[in-house]
Design goal:
Elements (H helix, E strand, L loop, with lengths): L1 E2 L13 H8 L4 H15 L1 H14 L8 E2 L15 H6 L3 H20 L1
Antiparallel strand pairs: 1-2
Helix pairs in contact: 1-2, 2-3
Length: 113
């Protein structure tokens, strides 16, 4: 599940702060919890818990509008350009092949330099 912004998740263990972060960045919640736990332990218990409680108070609860529908979410690996301006610019194959030539030219310059 993905969300548009960082919110407190109702599926979280304690206040939903870390699970909300994991959903916002599309990360596994258990790994995110483990990393946050390590950060809290190694930076000192008090500062980590204080920051966590501040985030729990500052972050809004998750609503239905925050959830991104997985069907409409475009995977970056399936589409080369997610920007509508770039989509229009590279719509026809001629401009795409010209861009590929420019990229090859810059690549050759970079390797020679």
């Amino acid at each position: 599940m993905r969300t548009r912004r960082w919110t407190r998740s109702p599926r979280g263990e304690i206040f939903g702060v870390v699970t909300g972060l994991a959903e916002w960045r599309d990360l596994p919640p258990s790994a995110t919890r483990f990393i946050v736990l390590l950060i809290v332990i190694f930076t000192g218990i008090f500062p980590g818990l204080f920051i966590y409680l501040l985030l729990a108070l500052a972050l809004p609860p998750q609503t239905e509008d925050d959830i991104i529908d997985e069907g409409s979410y475009r995977n970056k690996h399936n589409k080369r350009y997610d920007d509508p301006i770039m989509d229009a610019k590279f719509k026809d194959s001629d401009s795409r092949s010209r861009m590929d030539e420019k990229e090859k030219d810059w690549d050759e310059r970079f390797r020679k330099g």
